[in-house]
Amino acid sequence: MISLITKAREAKEERNGFLDMINASTARKREAEKRIKFYYDEQIEELRSIIARQWAHPESFRHFFFNLVRYIVDQRSHAYADWPLRTFDGADQEMCEQIFMPRPASISCSSAPTA
């Protein structure tokens, strides 16, 4: 009898853990969706909501947009656009560059290059 109660309790805890994980994932996806909307200039509803929560007369605000979010994200992403320069000590530089250079990706598995 005790083992059945223990198993039922463990199953309930496992279910609750799974539901907590799904709820956390849903909240994370909602937050990511909001950030993507800011990037693509679709943030007007969110901005109105923020302004309404912060100020007594939100209707008195004039709206104009300069997408600072996109500017910052694009500037940060340029830092990763170039392949990193590597210097190899104790090895042939040219051979190591050949090993570590990116390979063109194949979209279909049937035409994937073999090693």
Could you please describe the fold and organization of this structure?
It is a single chain. This protein is mainly α and 115 residues long. The chain has a domain at 2-79. The protein is 59% helix and 0% strand. The protein contains 4 helices and no strands. It has helices at residues 2-39, 44-54, 68-78, 93-100.
The total count of helices amounts to 4
Give the low-pLDDT segments.
none
Tell the overall outline: flat
Mean of residue pLDDT values: 78
- H and E order: HHHH
Strand content: under 5%
Structural class per helix/strand content?
Answer: mainly alpha
Q: Can you give the helix content as a percent range?
A: 55-70%
The count of β-strands is 0
Largest sheet: none
Radius of gyration: 26 Å
Instruction: Give the CA-CA distance, first to last residue.
Output: 59 Å
